[in-house]
UniProtKB/TrEMBL annotation:
Sequence ranges assigned to domain JmjC in this UniProt record: 265-431
Localisation per UniProt entry: Nucleus
Stated name of the protein: Lysine-specific demethylase JMJ18
Keywords from the named record: Iron, Methyltransferase, Nucleus, Oxidoreductase, Transferase
Biased composition (Low complexity): 159-176
JmjN domain residues: 63-104
Length: 827
């Protein structure tokens, strides 16, 4: 993707009301109210000329070209992955779509082409490589080369921040720093029609040969371009409409929101750059914000010699560029494994510029000869992109180039799962360079892992029915031992383990990170801007300020007991996630419950779940059980339900006796997650109860209910069919855990053709675990004589037994064989 630096804030550009000011300055000059000085390119005759005898065209190899079949072209990410092994060693490649791919360009609509204006920037092509540092005072104001005209402003231009930041205005600050960086000044506003006419006028004038207009070849333009860049003799200034956001001209592709006939195949295609970043399989789909230029395409309107200088994509992402119309673009690419070599060569040959501005390459204003790169041993390749073709760049592949004439292209980023390792390297490099990130890498990484867990879980559930979703199968392909996604999560785990270990903190300083820690604001290291989605270090002395684990000791000088480390997941949890992605069934069940459970919690806060479930009970959706509850819960005098009728139908009149048999009380963990207002959840608690068999709902079977430790997530509730241990259900909620069992019973009934009873409309999770059985409650309460589980005891003390009985009797009806009601509260 192309990016440019700008010397003046675009918000300060005044509207250009000129009409086709592509003529020499003697025509229509008085109609131009733009703020450009009279000496700007648009107001001057083109007097610089082509010197073919001095051409310096680079002699470098071509990058590969791919021509997918119509079938291959249907799946964008699959095709990119297919050609990656062949193309990535070059850093760049060209893709020629099938002949049937001819998307109409919406920019050619009259309302846009003739009436919608866009801003431009003025590029000094002769200064892209050969210029003096801004701070260095030249011996003479006159330079030792021909000058056909002088610009009305100083050659010193303010630089720019990275593309996502607002660039400083060239003349709005009196600070010396504002004049220290070279950049591109703002130019005229044009319509596409006006720009095309000016670009044609410029090119014909520049390549005029003895008063004869000459249509130069790409190779001739290329030789002249590098002559200007490497050994300039004249000022050559051009316009470029670069980094044009969606709100300026919009996309060149039609979108689903636009009612245009005959464009459906292009609107929905993955090759439509509006769709590409969020395709299934691109981890950018887990970025919540529409980051302009990353997830939302940018347009580039070029003319002859307008340039995009050497750079890599933000976060070392892939980029895909589509050439909508016009003359060719010439690209140069360096593979990612040669990125450091390119940087060293440029530092060697441009030492003064790098001494003055160490992050020179971040400014995107410096061009450099591919010929010199090749001479210095850097691998560099060439691409000529024509109208209707794509150019794909790979992670950390430096690329640069220029336009051969009036054209328009569009570009956006994409991140296949294979990018994750490159993205991790990028954020580590940014941290070393104290460079801000554009997105949270860990959010994308975990988002991909969650989606993979969901897909693996769905596939394991649907394997018996033979229904396999293509998207789920795609995610499965990234998992397994040594899978691409598995490796990325494991590498991140090892990194966290090493950094936590280096801190030397004991377990008491580790705390659970709140789920919404960075939901409403960016959390980044105060020192290096590292993203803090996965872990953060803080101190009581500075609430709101955090450090990454690498800079934890630099945050303050307080005593260790005042400092803490927040973890979204423990190392055990992340290890479990790795095993889940490898296919370990127990870990997959645990993480499936977390992923599916957390998505439900996003819609309804956990604190309101009790209220919502009580509302369900008011509507009569409780599970009407015939339960024989004895004070001695160890008794097993259970009256089992008779076998179903020969028809196998489960009717509302059927009932079953259930006795909750405690097998282990476990022990208490004193934390807010280990109890609710209605129950205490001891770690290691285990009980047995009979319920309809999930494999054969016509009979009753024993289920083991237990409470496990899910680390920072608190208790994990698990229910297992005793006769078939592989049939187990896990969730962070006892209620949801048993609802999963009930749903499985209903699904089996449906698959076997068994009508389901109205009683299958709901179930009581706490009741089924035994947390509402009086003797079990009494035994568990005895484990906390000092009432340290505050939430539970406060609620119990505030509610008298009489009012509680009244509340329960008015909200649910559970029929007991003893003939009395017992309250049912949901977690």
């Amino acid at each position: 993707m192309e990016h440019l630096s700008v010397a003046q804030s675009e918000s300060e550009i005044k509207e250009d009301t000129s009409m086709k000011n592509h003529h020499p300055p003697d025509k229509d000059k008085d109609k131009d109210t733009n703020m450009e000085p009279p000496s700007s390119p648009r107001h001057r005759m083109v007097v610089a000329r082509w010197l073919p005898a001095e051409a310096q065209r680079p002699n470098i190899d071509e990058a590969p070209v791919f021509s997918p079949s119509s079938e291959e072209f249907e799946d964008t990410l699959a095709y990119i992955e297919k050609i990656r092994p062949l193309a990535e060693p070059y850093g760049i490649c060209r893709i020629i779509p099938p002949s049937t791919w001819k998307p109409p360009c919406r920019l050619k609509e009259k309302s846009i082409w003739e009436h919608t204006k866009f801003p431009t920037r003025i590029q000094n092509v002769d200064l892209l490589q050969n210029r003096e540092p801004m701070k260095k005072k030249p011996k003479s104001k006159k330079r030792k080369r021909r000058r056909n005209s002088k610009m009305g402003s100083s050659r010193r231009r303010s630089g720019s921040s990275p593309p996502s930041a607002e660039p400083p205005a060239a003349s709005s600050s009196s600070s010396p720093e504002a004049e220290e960086k070279f950049g591109f000044n703002s130019g005229s506003d044009f319509t596409l029609e006006e720009f095309g006419e000016y670009a044609l006028h410029f090119k014909h004038s520049y390549f005029e040969k003895k008063d004869t207009k000459w249509n130069p070849s790409v190779e001739e333009i290329e030789g002249e371009y590098w002559r200007i860049v490497e050994t300039p003799t004249d000022e050559v200034e051009v316009y470029y409409g670069a980094d044009l956001e969606n709100g300026v001209l919009g996309s060149g592709f039609y979108k689903r929101t636009e009612t245009v006939t005959g464009v459906d195949q292009y609107v929905d295609s993955g090759w439509n750059l509006n769709n590409l970043p969020r395709l299934p399989g691109s981890v950018l789909s887990f970025e919540a914000c529409d980051i302009s230029g990353v997830l939302v395409p940018w347009l580039y309107v070029g003319m002859c010699f307008s340039s995009f200088c050497w750079h890599v994509e933000d976060h070392h992402l892939y980029s895909l560029n589509y050439h909508h119309f016009g003359e060719p673009k010439v690209w140069y690419g360096v593979p990612g494994n040669n990125a450091t070599a390119l940087e060293k060569v440029m530092r060697k040959h441009l030492p003064d510029l790098f001494d003055e501005q160490p992050d020179l390459l971040h400014g995107l204003v410096t061009q450099f000869s591919p010929s010199i790169l090749k001479e210095e041993g850097v691998e560099v390749y060439r691409v000529v992109q024509n109208e209707g073709e794509y150019v794909l760049t790979f992670p950390r592949a430096y690329h640069a180039g220029f336009n051969c004439g009036f054209n328009c292209a569009e570009a956006v980023n994409v991140a296949p799962v294979g990018w994750l390792a490159h993205g991790q390297n990028a954020v580590e490099l940014y941290s070393k360079e104290t460079r801000k990130t554009s997105l949270s890498h860990d959010k994308l990484l975990l988002g991909a892992a969650y989606e993979a867990v969901k897909s693996l879980w769905e596939l394991s559930s649907s394997s018996s029915s033979g229904k396999e979703n293509a998207t789920s199968l795609r995610w499965k392909s990234f998992c397994g031992k040594k899978g691409t996604l598995t490796n990325a999560i494991e590498a991140r785990l090892r990194m966290e383990e090493e950094r936590i270990g280096a801190l030397g903190r004991d377990a008491s300083s580790l705390a659970k990170m709140e789920k919404d820690f960075d939901s409403n604001c960016e959390r980044e290291c105060f020192s290096c801007f590292y993203d803090l989605h996965l872990s953060a270090s803080g101190c009581k002395c500075s609430p709101g300020d955090y450090a990454c684990l690498k800079h934890s000791e630099d945050l303050c000088s307080c005593e260790e007991e005042d400092r803490f480390v927040l973890l979204r997941y423990t190392m055990d949890e992340l290890s479990s996630l790795v095993r889940a992605l490898e296919g370990e069934s127990d870990d997959l069940k645990i993480w499936a419950s977390k992923v599916l459970g957390s998505r439900e919690e996003d819609e309804t806060k956990k604190t309101s779940s009790v209220i919502s479930e009580e509302k369900k009970l008011k509507k009569g959706s409780s599970f009407d059980l015939n339960i024989d509850l004895e004070l001695d819960c160890h008794e097993e005098d259970v009256k089992e339900e008779e076998e179903a009728s020969t028809s196998g139908e489960l009717t509302a009149s059927e009932s079953f006796g259930a006795s909750i048999e405690p097998m282990s009380l476990g022990f208490l963990i004193f934390g807010k997650l280990w109890c609710s207002k209605h129950a205490i959840f001891p770690k290691g608690f285990k009980s047995r109860v009979k319920f309809y068999n999930v494999l054969d709902p016509t009979r009753m079977s024993n289920y083991i209910s237990e409470v496990l430790d899910a680390g920072l997530m608190g208790p994990l509730f698990k229910v297992t069919l005793e006769e078939s241990p592989d049939e187990s259900f896990c969730n962070v909620s006892a209620q949801q855990c048993w609802e999963m069992v009930l749903q499985r019973v209903k699904d089996t009934c449906t698959s076997l053709g068994l009508p389901t009873s109205p009683r299958f409309e709901g179930i009581n999770g706490l009741q089924m675990f035994g947390f509402l059985s009086p003797s079990i409650v009494e035994a568990i309460e005895a484990l906390d004589p000092n009432h340290r589980l505050v939430e539970y005891w406060n609620h119990k003390n505030q509610t008298s037994s009489e009012s509680k009985d009244h509340f329960i009797s008015s909200n649910c009806s559970v029929s007991l064989t003893k003939g009395k009601l017992f309250g049912v509260d949901l977690m």
